[in-house]
Amino acid sequence: SHQYHLINGSLTWYEAQSFCRLMLTDLATSDKNDLVNTLGSHGTYSWIGFRRGNTRRWMWSDGRGPAHYTRWNVGEPSSGGVSEPCGEMTVGGKWNDVPRGYGKDFACYETRADGTETFVFYPGRRTWVESQEQCRTKHTDMAYISSALNNTAVANQANSWNNNMWIGLFNDAWMWSDGGETSFRNWLSGSDSGGDCASVAEQGRWVGADCNKKSTFVCHGDLKVKKTVIRMTVRSDLDLTDSTISDALLEK
């Protein structure tokens, strides 16, 4: 887990990144809901360490990272992830990339108290985003597939219902400032549109925004000031009553 610090300054994403790297570790990386659990729900839009990169990858919804085991159908994935950014299990047991707005049955997984996992299947023609919301609310997350055994279990259900089924596979090009590999996403309305840098807002959900917009921001890590001489010009719009900044200046 990360130690988070909400900084009541007003900086662009790149300025905030430099500040966090100088004073702490980096802009915040969020794995699961640890960010909202720490900060609570706050009304301001605050930068986190997440921005759009250049390399798209197929990853799992629950945060475990890239999909290493794959069972793509012949000729798939076919869109480069741009127009078809989500993955489905076909009745034949192979995967296909499709637009996220289609209505489909879907597969969740549940982590039991003893640490074992089981799949939970839903009929109902939900979009990928709606399916993710229900899986996270009622279970652990959307189904991930890491072996032929897992693949067969989900494929058998899709075949039984004779419908292709959403799994927790998605594609994007977003990357963490600190190099973290978590593939957890918590977009408001399931959308990363709006800009190339991410901020956290209501209920801990994320929105995309213009990286040059000035906002408050969230850093993570321990203060570095005992190891480094900090030379900085204090901006008038930085909140020096903020505990992180005031502690940093005192320790210097």
Automatic annotation (TrEMBL):
This is Macrophage mannose receptor 1-like. The lineage of its organism: Eukaryota, Metazoa, Chordata, Craniata, Vertebrata. The gene is LOC104946902. Residues 1-109, 114-220 form the C-type lectin domain. It holds the Pfam family Lectin_C. SUPFAM superfamilies: C-type lectin-like. It comes from Notothenia coriiceps (black rockcod). InterPro entries: C-type_lectin-like, C-type_lectin-like/link_sf, CTDL_fold. PROSITE patterns: C_TYPE_LECTIN_2 (PS50041).
